[in-house]
Design a protein that fits this description.
By secondary structure, this protein is α/β, with parallel strands linked by helices. The protein has three domains: about 10-55, no CATH class; about 65-265 and about 390-515, Vaccinia Virus protein VP39 (Rossmann fold, 3-Layer(aba) Sandwich); about 270-380, no CATH class. The protein is about 25% helix and about 20% strand. The strands form six sheets. The protein has a ten-stranded mixed β-sheet with strand order 3-23-4-22-21-5-6-8-7-20, sandwiched between helices.
């Protein structure tokens, strides 16, 4: 009697895998679950050594395991309001014992604050913007003390001999130069992701020093499928002279979604030049013509064979059809004119059938010949948006504007070096499609530009709220006015002054401190 082959009567639940990937994208590497990382995320720190056979692509550095652990450790402090230190100057709470303002400035170390925010704000933040300290080789205040000792690391990697003498002079190439910064950023980004809504987005400013590494850890924390864009910002048109080889004129803005499927469709209002393109008119309104042939990305027929099909044009009235019922119809195919290579349309046949009222056939001149092409009528509306370009060149983005804006607030006093301009944050908020009640978070509060832009946005557009976090760090820059040497103090004072200028009331924001 033949033995019946037994097969399992279940399949692994792909839905649960997808849910786990949304909850903990850092536990997936090369599309597979890293069970060591998953175990550590769940609090099991016994698996200190990964199986060497489980090699995978990723970013690794000394201290990464402890940085991951730091994000999972419980907070040790509490958040306590400081009555009278916001604009609620009488020093008394409201009738229910709390300040009802939804705008919060938190003075404290941001890793601890991010942990404390998990209970009340997990899944509630619409937009996060951070401008972390750039890794220029100087020490920074966010030292979480879980990288290995410097001399031990240098000996292990062969950068010093047994007597501690350097065997290389290129200190910027030292692994620890990057690992200390990565250990600072990694747990904070993990906790920040938990705070975002499903339709939330994060923007991170950075320069060349850590661009590649930051891209990799954002890919790990948020998942590469949630990458939105890397914007290049012309921040200093004259060029910085601090770099020996080139005069750097730009910085970067890395952008990720919490969940790409629900991410806001980033768009900007049309400027006057773009509005002028809508110079054709019919009974429905003003419009412009967009070619239906795919011109970028996967445009070839081989890339999208289902989008290669003939459209027939009646040359008498320019009407179009998928059927060639009339002998005088002209066949139009999505062929690239310059190379005669078969391409594809932007619309499927189904979309064509549903919305062909927006399409017309039109005779055009190409290389001295009259040919027919298919165009879409794109109508102008007041809320019309355009996709943001990847390079931002507006003069308002010049970071010198940020310095001027602060000086205007502080009676020409120097209170912060290299603050971001308000225009940058306003543009980021516009791209995030912020609406009534949305919350913005900045846990490297710095000079307070995010708070300033949030107040402007609330007054001019939609009523949003902010959470700003800044450690009470003493600025060591030259020429900083001693009265505002404490960055947290300067940031809070900026918020007060903006509130007064905008006349938003005496109860607009609360100041909270972390108490251990």
């Amino acid at each position: 009697m033949a033995h019946e082959k037994l097969r399992p009567d279940y399949l692994f639940d792909e839905t649960k895998i997808a849910q786990l990937k949304q909850l903990a994208p850092e536990c997936f590497e090369d599309g597979k679950i890293n069970f060591t990382t998953l175990s550590q995320n769940l609090g099991d720190w016994r698996l200190d050594e990964e199986d060497p056979k489980l090699e995978h692509f990723g970013l690794f550095w000394p201290g990464k395991r402890d940085a991951r652990k730091a994000a999972a450790l419980p907070p040790e402090g509490t958040l306590e309001p400081v009555w009278g230190d916001g604009l609620k100057s009488d020093g008394t709470p409201d009738s229910d014992g709390v300040n009802d303002s939804k705008n919060i400035f938190i003075e404290g170390e941001n890793l601890e604050v991010l942990k404390l925010l998990q209970k009340s704000y997990a899944g509630k933040i619409k937009m996060i913007y951070i401008d972390p300290p750039y890794n220029t080789g100087n020490d920074f205040v966010y030292d979480d003390d879980f990288t290995e000792p410097l001399q031990e690391y240098l000996r292990r990697t062969g950068q010093v001999d047994e007597e501690g003498k350097a065997m290389t002079t290129n200190k910027r190439s030292d692994g620890r130069f990057h690992s200390k910064w990565l250990c600072m950023m990694y747990p904070r980004l993990r906790l920040a992701r938990n705070l975002l809504r499903d339709d939330g987005v994060i923007f991170v400013s950075i320069d060349d020093n850590e661009l590649s590494n930051l891209s990799l850890i954002l890919n790990e924390v948020f998942g590469p499928e949630n990458f939105l864009a890397t914007f290049i910002i012309q921040s200093n048109p004259r060029g910085s002279q601090s770099i020996k080889s080139v005069a750097s004129t730009h910085e970067y803005l890395l952008t990720f979604a919490k969940n790409f499927e629900f991410a806001p469709e980033m768009g900007l209002s049309l400027d006057q030049k773009m509005q002028n393109e809508y110079n054709l008119q019919d009974a429905q309104g003003y419009y412009r013509l967009l070619g239906l042939r795919q011109r970028g990305g996967a445009w070839r027929r081989s890339d999208r064979p289902s989008l290669y099909y003939p459209i027939y044009v009646d040359p008498i009235n320019n009407s179009i059809s998928l059927d060639n019922d009339e002998q005088h119809y002209i066949e139009v195919l999505p062929v690239q004119p310059s190379t005669n290579i078969d391409g594809s349309w932007r619309w499927s046949k189904r979309k064509f059938e549903d919305e062909n009222v927006l399409l017309i056939g039109k005779s055009v001149q190409r290389e001295g010949k009259e040919v027919y092409d298919i165009f879409q009528k794109d109508y102008f509306t007041e809320d019309k948006k355009t996709k943001p370009k990847s390079i931002w060149l507006e003069k308002e983005l010049n970071y010198q504007n940020g310095t001027t804006e602060l000086k205007d607030l502080f009676n020409n006093k120097e209170v912060f070096n290299f603050p971001k301009p308000i225009y940058l944050l306003d543009k980021i908020m516009t791209l995030s499609n912020l609406t009534e009640g949305d919350i913005v978070l900045d846990f490297f509060g710095g000079s307070g530009t995010t708070a300033h832009a949030s107040i402007n946005y609330s007054v001019d557009k939609e009523n949003i709220s902010f959470i700003i976090v800044q450690i009470p760090e003493v600025a060591e820059y030259k020429d900083i006015d001693i009265e505002f040497a404490n960055i947290a103090k300067a940031c809070a004072e900026r918020i007060r002054r903006v509130c007064q200028i905008k006349k938003v009331g005496f109860n607009y924001f609360s100041l909270i401190r972390v108490c251990l």
